[in-house]
Amino acid sequence: MSRDRMTPWSNRWQALREALLEPRVDDQTLAEAMRAARARQPLPVIWLIGKTQSGKTSIIRALTGSPRAEIGNGFQPCTPTAQLYDFPTDLPLVRFLDTRGLGEVAYDPAADIQYCESRAHLLLAVMKATDTRQDEVFEVLRAVRGRHPEWPLVIAQTALHEAYPVAGSHLLPYPFDQDPWPSTLDPDLARALLVQRERAGELPGRDPVRWIPVDLTLPEDGFDPPDYGLEALWRAIDAGSTLHLRELLGADPAIRGLYAQSSHSHIAAYALAAAGVGAVPLVDLVGVPAIQAKMLHSLAVLHGQDWDRRAILEFLGLLGTGIGVAYAARAAGRGLVKLIPVWGQTIGAVWGATASGATTYALGKAASVHFNRRGRGLPSDAADLRRAYAEGLQRGTRLLTDLTRDRRG
Ligand SMILES: Nc1nc2c(ncn2[C@@H]2O[C@H](COP(=O)(O)OP(=O)(O)OP(=O)(O)O)[C@@H](O)[C@H]2O)c(=O)[nH]1
Ligand SMILES: [Mg+2]
User: Fold this and answer.
1) pLDDT tens across 55-88, in order?
2) How far is the CA of 83 from the centre of ligand 2 (A)?
3) Nearest alpha carbon, ligand 1 atom 11
4) What atom of ligand 1 comes closest to residue 100's alpha carbon?
């Protein structure tokens, strides 16, 4: 175990203060350390398998909220038959692997399986609901799940409206999570969806296949809502994997309401880097406090806030009061660390990588609340920061426990 992981919390607070006020790590070293931490913990991979024009890119757009053009430009070649898109581009949290040319040329998934072999995963098959010729896709799924029965499989049935009568509209509320489907569902559409499922036959694998009808249109197409079925797709993804992808990407409405998605993904990326301390020499050298200091700085920039000595001291003062650090410093010497309310709460519950990551996550969430309020000209107070920190610690612990375990496993 690295020295950093055993540092008492009161010393960590002191170290954070120093890293903020007297930084000793230059930006370039820090950037390299972040890259090293990331390389150590490969990104979770969502593998999209579907014929050309089946709607793969549309699904990436809907899951990440990125514009199509940005995804198109962000694709990088990966294997001879797949390209990848890392999201977010600057500090990626997840990797989408997109198969190419399926249905047009003979596709051999061997190289893509091999690429995915050691990475945490989700298989996301994509097929147009009205396209009955999916044998080749099913064959690939059989091969992949035969080799990896543990990989969860979600099959999205896309472009539903192509089966609608002229001027038809989406049935609301979304009916496909009811069993049986309601009688108001268009019979042609219901038939198309069921035929496709029957043709799949028995697909191997540990968990049942999750079939999710979606229609991910553009606003100008005039369908309401444009992301029909997205909620169900997220539920299936989260039920199938332990990666908490929705939360990780900040696509959870609970998170969207509180923080801008961009600051959320920054926080998650820095938390993951902090969780890598103890695993990579360069990251160890830089240490958790430097990563946290860099995160706070970049959050201030994202929120358009000053981050000079005065602003830093103000934030530390409020946060310290909020989470009881002043008390911690006094109590630590007498062996009363367990009584520290929030800052020390992780001590019996989690340790090591998760604790470093979770406290970084919590710190980022508290800072977001602080910057948010200041940005709106409102006072930021210790009680708010304490709440944000406590909630962040809880969410961060859950997020990172599963993520770092999955990545090791
Ligand atoms: N209405 C509707 N259109 C969709 C849906 N998914 C995709 N499309 C449309 O179908 C076309 C192809 O979608 P893409 O998302 O680019 O499909 P793809 O699988 O990435 O295609 P390639 O990259 O060419 O293999 C686009 O015109 C999309 O707007 C959907 O769920 N509903
Ligand atoms: Mg595409």
Assistant:
1) 999 999 999 988 888 899 999 999 999 999 999 8
2) 10
3) 53
4) 25
Domains of the chain, start order: 3-40+255-408 (no CATH), 45-242 (3.40.50.300)
Whole-number Å distance, alpha carbon 86 to ligand 1 midpoint, is 19
- Say what the pTM is: 0.85
- Beta carbon of 403 within 6 Å of any ligand 1 atom: no
Radius of gyration (C-alpha) of the chain in whole angstroms = 24
| 161 close to ligand 1 (CB < 6 Angstrom) | yes
Half-sphere exposure of 94 (CA within 13 A, CB side): 22
Question: Which residues lie below 8 Å from residue 110, measured CB to CB, with a gap of 6+?
Answer: none
Q: Does the beta carbon of 53 lie inside 6 Å of ligand 1?
A: yes
Tell me the CB-side half-sphere exposure of residue 371, using CA atoms within 13 A. 25
Kindly list the protein residues that place their beta carbon closer than 5 angstroms to ligand 2, a single-atom ion.
Answer: 56-57
Strands (E), 117-253: 121-128, 153-158, 210-213, 215-216, 227-228
Q: Are 334 and 350 in contact (CB under 8 A)?
A: no
Q: Give the pLDDT confidence of 278-337 residue by residue, as tens digits.
A: 777 888 888 899 999 999 999 999 999 999 999 999 999 999 887 766 544 444 444 444
Q: Is the CB of residue 216 below 6 angstroms from any atom belonging to ligand 1?
A: yes
Residue 384: CA count within 13 A, CB half-sphere? 15
Q: Residue 344: CB within 6 Å of ligand 1? A: no
Cis peptide before 182, with omega less than 30 degrees from 0? no
